[in-house]
Amino acid sequence: MTEKISTVDELFIHELQDLYSAEEQLVQALTKMASAADTSELRSGFARHLEQTRHHLRRVEQALNEVGEKPDGTVCKGIEGLIAEGEGLMTATTFGPVLDSALIDAARKVEHYEITAYRAAIAKAHELGFNDAAALLEMNLQEEELTDHRLQQLAQGMMPYSGPAADPRDDGSEVIVGQSVHA
Ligand SMILES: [Fe+2]
After folding, report:
1. How many A from CA of 107 to the centre of ligand 1?
2. 16 alpha carbon to ligand 1 midpoint, in Å?
């Protein structure tokens, strides 16, 4: 980017470009994560989210079209970093339940990043009157929230011990907050 972002409109477009890049990178990453997972539930969970992610990419592209833009090759550095971290962990972890646990943790970090990014973009879309773009982004947000919730439940199911690793505050409430806001 050569020129500085100086209006909320430009910031919104930048956020959409960033989200497009994030979803594009995640199509690749989720393919690898699905093949690295040991349990069939986690493999099918990643495979399902991979399909959703392909839809997310199309919806973000549609949202860009709504504001007269197209993907411009912006790279989402945040997701790039989270994927690099996850790949490092995948290489460093023994195949099996511990790797599955690492994959879930890495995937949830990505979901939380995306949830925050979608919420920020949706707020700007409404503020700027891009209601069709907001509706598209909202569909993605709801699927990200649900995915995070499902991953949290999978993580709980994989940890039969209720020792210090299980955080009782982590009840998947992200999705509940999202539903109450958008109900
Ligand atoms: Fe997504």
Report:
1. 11
2. 12
What CA–CA distance (Å, rounded) separates 72 from 18? 10
CA 114–ligand 1 middle distance (angstroms): 7
Amino acid type, 27: V
Could you tell me the distance, in angstroms and rounded to a whole number, from the CA of residue 28 to the centre of ligand 1? 12
- Between the CA of 13 and the centroid of ligand 1 the distance, in Å, is 17
Task: Measure CA 138 to chain center.
Answer: 13
DSSP string computed for 48-62: HHHHHHHHHHHHHHH
What is the predicted pLDDT for the residue at 159? 64
User: Taking the domains of the chain in order of start, what are their residue ranges?
Assistant: 8-159+171-182
Q: Mind listing the pLDDT tens digit for each residue in 44-71?
A: 999 999 999 999 999 999 999 999 999 9
Q: What percent of the chain shows pLDDT beyond 90?
A: 83
- Give the Å distance between the CA of 85 and the centre of ligand 1: 18
Phi, psi for residue 78 in degrees, rounded to 5: -60, -50
Determine the CATH number of domain 8-159+171-182: 1.20.1260.10
> How much distance in Å is there from the Cα of 99 to the middle of ligand 1?
22
